[in-house]
Design goal:
The chain is an alpha+beta fold. The protein contains 19 helices and 32 strands.
């Protein structure tokens, strides 16, 4: 009953974990939602009949989505209550000189304004929020309960759910006009903020292009802010006397974009304004049509364009090796969000994420996440073209303006509640290559935090790859040693040594993973780096020492061979290990001088040497296998025919000579093949062999093998020992040798147990956390390089989950990583059980 309760409880616990993971992960893939909150007519009173439906220069909404604001083409700013469009304030910001252009790409509300006389002003349009005592406001309960807030003069008052009275008003701040060296109407301008400094780029009606660095200072006594400019004229390449319609300045103020209505873009390198010049020219429309909208995404590095063919496309600079531009950057089309449709009339980008909203000529709103290509939602506003659109500062609201069919001189204002969900997380973005900003091509990458956190890279393949890589190298090191040790212990070791040695091996499993990881990172990794040629030679010299020692053991007289088959033979085997290490210490430096130009680290970095040494390392096991097959299939049958009359000593000497010739032949074959591959230009560097990192897969494979060997060894030895003795006796009685009995009778019979042991070791390697966390660089790279690090699913969860914001995309993606790990182990265990049952059925038939 206790066993049944434990089994059922285990099933319930595992099922509960599965359900919990699904419950956390499913919201990642739910669609975004939107709901119309309000719509109203907004009267402007300043536009003429000819300007009906003209797009405002700028529109926005406050963070609480209670106030709407728009800046009209004539310099008048209008504020209204978002719930019903009731006007709150209307005032002229600029009268003379006339406002001719505006820059609004800064998320902080900072703007720049250009005027007809060539002057420029800096300023900001924002909302001021304060909280006042409801009793001191002098308002009745009915006035406070008005939906959308009560208008008091130019202030909107609203009673919050917490009982506070929130007061909001438009906050406009303007600095005095600046002379940036322009003599005519400012056609277009833009500003950028970097490290507290302001840079302005502007062009006037005469085609004069200026980049100005602005330094501001504040009088500590009066609080007056003054600004000085450092102006640099940029030589402009004219286009048939046409002036550009748009000017944009990158976030770092090092790249300037001039764009014409036909889609032609000129990109200027202004890193040093005094030495600036045209870097690149391309067509954003690429065919018939016109460019109708253009904006920056957050960070001001990615351009999003809309055209008269209804396309929404994203462009950013990359640094390809074949770039022929003066700054080595080439602007590339990275994302095509909408391929065709009604002409795009306006674009608005989020202040927080890489979400962009597009308005069309036929009254549609399209909202996309640029990086993931995901269409978040589409809504039809009406038949009128959308003139302006804006996302709320917290990405929880969306507003749009169209011409009002009822009030010819006004706008129709629409407001939506939106929930974008988790737009960065789609199956394609998580498991296929994604083209991230600044990258030359789509890649699989994981980078959840950093300087470009507005575009998190949440590709899970590098983590899955790291898990597979860690498991592969661990199993390569651990499983052969564990299985061969189990076979030796069960079938060949003296019974007096079996129990203590098995117990000693099982004690290895008591070492905590964190201790092994600490030893690997602090002790083993530096030692391996300092004697890398010797370490690589060990993988060949120890097997060779054991092999030669085994053939030398055959030369013993028959009586001593039998008498020393117990503890003396085990001692001889143990003696071969230090001999192999000593040989490696002698061979390693010679091998480095002969095949790696005396500097294996430099060779791995590609600085010195040919590819012969690398190919020799990789081909030695293959050539050894080829020679072993040749000796067993071709030479051994011939030897058996001619050696029937040989005595034991002669046969042993011949076998020793045969293995010596085989070792030399394997080395020569590998060397010939290595020179052949080197002659073709092939190089293993960049693949399995590459730049050396101190904490790498070689270290992890060795240490994790140390962790899984006790488990695999114990279970495998138990499976071999449980094989009935009469099967061994029958095989030996039929004339088979002990090795033939072990290989052809005992191992096949115990195969189900051996397979289970391997799969349990595999499960330990897949889920290991602390060793891979401490003994690797913990970098999510996809490379089979044995000398490089990686990051596994389990290590990534352990590192990042404690700092992940609850219910964020990052948080849920980490749980998705846990779900992937759960699914991976479940599939492997299921397949293992199916295979184990087949082996068990065959063994039962024996």
């Amino acid at each position: 009953m206790l066993i049944s309760i434990g089994g059922v409880g285990t099933i319930v616990a595992v099922t509960g974990i599965f359900v919990f993971l699904v419950w956390v992960v499913v919201p990642l893939f739910q669609s975004a939602s939107h709901e119309l909150r309000s719509q109203a007519s907004v009267a402007t009173g300043s536009m003429s009949q000819s300007d009906r439906g003209a797009a405002p220069l700028w529109t926005g909404i406050d963070e609480y989505r209670r106030l709407g604001v728009a800046l009209e083409p004539d310099g008048k700013i209008v504020t209204w209550r978002a719930s019903d469009g009731k006007p709150i304030e209307s005032r002229a910001l600029f009268t003379t000189p006339a406002l001719t252009s505006i820059s609004t790409h800064e998320a902080s509300g900072e703007m720049a304004f250009g005027f007809a006389d060539g002057s420029v002003r800096l300023g900001s349009i924002d909302f001021a929020t304060s909280f006042v005592d409801p009793s001191a406001a002098g308002l009745s309960a009915s006035e406070l309960a008005v939906d959308g807030g009560s208008i008091q003069g130019t202030t909107l008052l609203e009673l919050t759910n917490e009982g506070q009275l929130r007061a909001q008003t438009l906050d406009v701040r303007l600095l005095p006009p600046l002379d940036v060296g322009l003599s005519g109407r400012v056609v277009a301008l833009d500003r950028s903020e970097k490290n507290g400094s302001t840079t302005i780029a502007a062009i006037d009606e005469h085609g004069k292009l200026v980049v100005s660095a602005i330094a501001r200072s504040e009088n500590l006594l009066t609080g007056e802010v003054t600004a000085t400019t450092d102006d640099q004229v940029i030589p402009l390449r004219p286009r048939e006397n046409m002036l550009p319609e748009r000017l944009l300045l990158s976030g770092n103020a090092d790249t300037l974009y001039l764009v014409w209505h036909d889609g032609i873009l000129q990109r200027y390198d202004v890193r040093d304004p005094a030495q600036s010049g045209l870097a690149e020219e391309l067509d954003l429309v690429e065919g018939p049509g016109e460019l109708t909208a253009l904006t920056f995404l957050i960070g001001k590095s990615t351009l999003v364009s809309g055209d008269s063919r209804g396309r929404v496309r994203a462009w950013f600079g990359t640094k390809p090796a074949n770039a022929d531009t003066r700054d080595g950057i080439r602007l590339q089309l990275a994302h095509e969000l909408c391929a065709a449709g009604a002409p795009i009339t306006t674009l608005s980008a989020s202040e927080r994420t890489r979400v962009v909203c597009a308005g069309t000529q036929d009254g549609k709103l399209l909202t996309y996440h640029v990086t993931s290509h995901k269409l978040l939602f589409e809504t039809v506003v009406g038949n009128e073209p959308i003139r302006a659109v804006a996302l709320a500062p917290k990405d929880n609201g969306l507003v749009a303006l169209t011409a009002d069919p009822v009030a010819p001189l006004g706008w129709r204002f629409f407001s939506w509640d939106i929930d974008l969900g988790y737009p960065e997380a789609t199956l394609a973005a998580l498991f296929t290559p994604v083209w991230y900003e600044g990258y030359e091509a789509p890649v699989n990458a994981w980078q959840s935090t950093g300087s470009d956190s507005f575009e998190p890279k949440l590709g899970l393949w590098p983590l899955v790859f790291g898990t597979i890589k860690a498991t592969f190298y661990s199993m390569i090191f651990g499983v052969p040693i564990a299985l061969l040790a189990a076979i030796f212990t069960s079938e060949f070791m003296d019974k007096r040594l079996r129990t203590p040695l098995k117990s000693l091996t099982e004690m290895m499993a008591s070492l905590p993973s964190v201790v092994l990881g600490f030893i690997a990172a602090i002790i083993i990794a530096p030692i391996v780096q300092s004697v890398l040629p010797t370490v690589l030679a060990v993988f060949f010299t120890i097997p060779m020492a054991l092999l030669i020692g085994a053939y030398l053991w055959q030369l013993l007289p028959p009586r001593k061979y039998v008498r020393w088959s117990g503890a003396p033979r085990f001692a001889a085997i143990c003696t071969c290990l230090p001999i192999g290490v000593l040989l490696a210490a002698l061979v390693g430096p010679w091998f480095e001088r002969a095949f790696f130009a005396g500097d294996i680290m430099g060779w791995l970095n590609g600085r010195v040497g040919t590819s012969v040494g690398g190919w020799l390392l990789l081909l030695l096991p293959v050539s050894a296998l080829i020679c072993a097959v040749f000796l067993s299939r071709v030479v051994d049958p011939w030897v058996r025919r001619i050696s029937a009359t040989w005595d034991r000593g002669r046969a042993g000497r011949f076998d020793l000579g045969k293995i010596a010739v085989g070792i030399v032949a394997a080395f020569v074959l590998a060397l010939v093949l290595a020179h052949g591959l080197d002659a073709t230009g092939a190089d293993p560097r960049g693949g399995v062999l590459d730049t050396y990192v101190q904490r790498n897969a070689l270290i992890v494979g060795f240490v994790m093998a140390f962790a899984i060997i006790p488990i695999v060894y114990t279970l495998a030895e138990d499976a071999l020992s449980s094989v009935p003795g009469h099967l061994r006796l029958a095989s030996l009685g039929a004339g088979a040798t002990p090795w033939q009995t072990a290989a052809r009778v005992v191992v096949p019979t115990a195969m189900s147990g051996l397979f289970s042991a391997v799969m349990i070791g595999l499960g330990r390697a897949v889920g290991e956390t602390m060793i891979v966390l401490m003994a690797t660089g913990n970098t999510p790279v996809m490379s089979w390089n044995v000398f490089n690090g990686f990051r596994t699913l389990s290590a990534n969860i352990a590192v990042e989950l404690p700092e992940a914001v609850r219910n964020s995309t990052h948080y849920r993606t980490l749980f998705l990583a846990a779900f992937c790990l759960f699914a991976l182990t479940f599939v492997l265990n299921t397949l293992a059980e199916v295979v184990r049952q087949r082996f068990r059925k065959r063994a039962y038939q024996l």
